[in-house]
Specification:
Blueprint lengths: L41 E4 L5 E3 L19 H21 L3 H23 L4 H8 L1 E12 L16 E10 L4 E10 L2 E11 L2 E5 L1 H4 L2 E6 L3 H8 L4 H4 L6 H8 L7 H10 L1 E12 L2 E12 L1 H17 L2 H11 L4 H16 L1 H14 L2 E8 L2 E7 L2 E2 L2 E2 L1 E6 L8 E8 L2 E8 L9 E10 L5 E10 L5 E7 L3 E12 L2 E13 L2 E13 L10 E4 L5 H25 L2 H8 L1
């Protein structure tokens, strides 16, 4: 049988439709012809299917390049976020005949571009981060500096100076660590590592601590510090925390009220406007048009429900409790409370989105489908009495994924982003040429061009950005697998007016979590130390630091010149 509300096929024993949530009753269910269409000009509400008089004035005609009035970029930046969010909601909420056609096309289009990214292996990073378990490494080395910029110092002395950082994180194992080192050529200048295994925090810096790391238990830290400094024990006695208890809460996913989802689903209206020729990235396509209406009040209510779902996690309260348990003074907490509430609850973001919804009012989109894909989405909002024109255009070439563009214009200003290339590597190489151009009403123009090439078999990677008076060029190797990504740039240059200003080597990799060893022979816990032990440790660190400086000068004579210069 089929759902009378959304028309999708159901299990004969279903009590609720898994697609739209409507209760299933035997007397309500009748076979539905999935090819049934609703004639324009009639809006059909998703849940009731009741007919309403359609708005007759067309939103946009279908051409990819139009002129309009007034461009308020600050407001539109927020409005675009709302529009994209509404589009995502639309792709998963529509039911009925016109709605189903638009929904399927949106899903097919998203799947096409998602598959392109996945084929390049670029989803690995996000997948590992979603699992909350990964290890990553990053290093950057100074390769070239223009010596003519330094009148009293040979800048080539700095070439070979670099830094590397590594991090390992597993929420499930309640373990994280970070290591860092500065190096010059093949010699390490200084190293440091910090790790947190459940409640045991340890710090290791061999140049200063020798073979031993310094550790402390965060749950007994206050008592340990009080024992070391009895005269000020009131300052420390209440310090006791477990960072992972907060992270467990912080990584929870907000659950939006299903009733709010259903209400937005009910409010969205879709009208089939018929066949139309639309120019998409230089090609005229025969499309089927749909007008989609997302009411302001429905979208605002959905944003309220989403904000409530985030607030229900009480992240700001959890952060305040964590800061208090870490010993942050009450006076500081009172000062930080409002900022923490805004940051953790996303209040400022939601306020901005709601203001954008209020500014743009009802969102009316003109959606054009061709070959089962979304070929164009156009929007013509009126903001502060001025009409803007926005359009997203997908496909148009031989391969759907190979071309896309976005245009926003008004008041004589225009921002245009255009991308073309072999985005599916049908030739064996991924290529992309993206151009960003902006022209204002006074005739001033700015253009930036990005060109990328990647050979997945040879792993060759090239990316360049050219702008007015500046450029960036990167060349190296990009290697990816189902669970790891590695990027090694042999040359990363920044140029100004044709002259190299900075040359670097850079490496980055991410892979599944693996705990790395710090190299410390043992961990000396603060809880087992006396005040005199801690004082002796301070003197030892000071002596080791002096020895480290002298040893460094002997190993790398070129640094002596650098020290004198600094």
């Amino acid at each position: 049988m089929f759902c009378k509300n959304c028309g999708k096929e159901l299990n004969d024993n279903a009590k609720f439709c898994p697609h739209c949530g409507v209760k299933v009753t035997g007397e309500d269910q009748t076979p539905v012809n999935e090819t049934q269409t609703v004639q324009a000009p009639v809006y059909e509400t998703v849940e009731t299917g009741s007919a309403q008089t359609a708005y007759q004035e067309p939103i946009l005609g279908g051409s990819g390049a139009r002129r309009g009035k007034g461009l308020v970029f600050g407001v539109i930046a927020a409005a675009l976020v709302v529009c994209v969010g509404a589009g995502v909601a639309l792709a998963g909420m529509l039911g009925g005949s016109p709605q189903t056609e638009v929904e399927k096309a949106m899903k097919k289009s998203v799947s096409a571009y998602s598959q392109m990214v996945e084929d390049m292996g670029l989803t690995t990073l996000s997948k590992l981060q979603e699992k909350q378990a990964y290890s990553t490494d990053f290093s950057v080395t100074l390769k070239e500096l223009p010596t003519e910029l330094y009148y009293y110092f040979d800048a080539s002395v700095l070439e070979g100076l670099g830094v590397r950082v590594g991090a390992d994180y597993s929420l499930e194992k309640r373990a994280m660590s970070m290591s860092a080192a500065a190096y010059y050529g093949s010699a390490d200048l200084v190293q440091a590592a910090v790790s947190l295994d459940d409640t045991v925090l340890s710090v290791y810096a061999p140049e200063f601590l020798g073979d031993s790391a310094l550790g402390m238990d965060t749950m007994t830290l206050g008592a340990d510090l009080s024992n070391l400094d009895p005269g000020n024990q009131d300052m420390y006695k209440d310090i006791s925390f477990n960072l992972y208890d907060f992270l467990d809460k912080y990584t929870q996913t907000p659950e939006v009220d299903p009733g709010a989802v259903k209400a937005l689903r009910k409010a969205i209206q879709v009208e089939k406007t018929g066949k139309e020729s639309v120019e998409v990235n230089g090609t005229d396509l025969d499309c089927t048009g749909y007008r989609v209406l997302i009411p302001e009040d429905a979208l605002r209510d959905y944003l309220d429900a989403t904000e409530d779902a985030v607030s229900a996690l009480e992240l700001e309260d959890a952060m305040m409790e964590l800061m208090e348990s870490m010993g942050v003074p009450q006076s500081e907490l009172a000062y930080m409370e409002r900022e923490l509430e805004n940051a953790m609850s996303g209040k400022e973001i939601f306020d901005g989105l709601k203001q954008a919804v209020k500014t743009v009012g009802d969102i009316e989109l003109q959606v054009y489908l061709n070959g089962g894909y979304v070929s164009a989405v156009e929007w013509e909002p009126v903001i502060d009495g001025e009409r803007l024109e926005m359009g997203l255009y997908l496909g148009g070439g031989k391969t759907y994924e190979d071309q896309w563009s976005f245009v926003i214009s008004g008041g004589g200003d225009e921002l245009r982003v255009e991308s073309e290339g072999d985005h599916t590597a049908s030739s064996g190489r991924y290529t992309d040429l993206t151009t960003i151009s902006y022209t204002d009403s006074y005739g001033s123009a700015f253009t930036m061009e990005s060109e990328l090439e990647y050979d997945p078999k040879a792993h060759d990677f090239m990316w360049s950005i050219q702008g007015d008076g500046f450029a960036m060029e990167a060349e190296g190797q990009l290697t990816s697998s189902k669970d790891a990504v590695s990027l090694a740039l042999d040359n990363l240059e920044f140029q100004a007016y044709g002259e190299t200003m900075l040359g670097l080597e850079m490496e980055y990799s991410i892979r599944p979590y693996e705990k790395r060893e710090t190299g410390a022979a043992e961990v000396n816990m603060i809880g087992g130390m006396s005040a005199s032990d801690l004082e002796d440790l301070g003197w030892e660190i000071q002596d080791n630091a002096q020895d480290w400086v002298y040893s460094l000068m002997d190993k790398i004579p070129a640094l002596q010149e650098l020290m004198w210069y600094l």
